[in-house]
Amino acid sequence: MLERDLYGTRLLLSKLLLPVLKTLDGLVLEYEVLSQNGVKLYTDAFFEPLQHVYECEGFVPHVELQTRERHDFAQSRLRTFAAKRFVYVPFSRDELEKKPEACRRSLYEIIGEQTTSQQSSKLYLLPIVERELLRYALNVSNRFSLSSACESLGIGETSARRHLRSLYNKRLLRSVGSGDRRLHYYQITDEGRAHFF
């Protein structure tokens, strides 16, 4: 499947998923799902931490030329995703090309609703400064320094160092670069991401 043109998937990645998620970690292209009757189904992209199925649907193949049998198959496919408790998040090709900002806002809203409704999440057991540091780590594209964390949260170096060390010891952050005594850069871990998703 990955050897095909995949224009829609590339559009989905460049206009929507990478700008919103800030990473490709946890994202699987052409994710294979086995339907209830044993048929292999493929999604354009699947985001494992949130169990999201992302699709880019062009008008001609998905609507204009759709037969009754193809429509039945599409409905069966959606039921398979529902049975697996996947969140189905489709976007039209036209939307992604003409209104990418609106698509991104929509995805932010979906993620926000899904993650804030999980009030019993481990995230809320963390002290508020650690929670906000972890949220900051989630939103930076790659790595961040002590000074950028201080500036972002408006806290001093001593406080930031203490909370960063705590998150590091809880394995929610990891060090990036060399040095085992003094950590210069941090990055969120998969376990840290799981606190949000």
Characterization of the model:
The protein folds into 2 domains: 110 residues, Endonuclease, Chain A; 73 residues, Winged helix-like DNA-binding domain superfamily/Winged helix DNA-binding domain (Arc Repressor Mutant, subunit A, Orthogonal Bundle), CATH 1.10.10.10. Helices cover 50% and strands 19% of the residues. Strand 1 and strand 2 form a beta hairpin. Helix 1 crosses helix 5, helix 6 packs across helix 8 and helix 7 crosses helix 8. It is elongated.
Q: What portion of the residues fall into strands of 2 or more residues? A: 15-25%
Poorly predicted parts = none
What's the number of domains? 2
Query: SSE string, helix = H, strand = E?
Result: HEEEHHEHHHEHHEEH
Output the number of helix runs: 9
Nearest-integer average pLDDT? 84
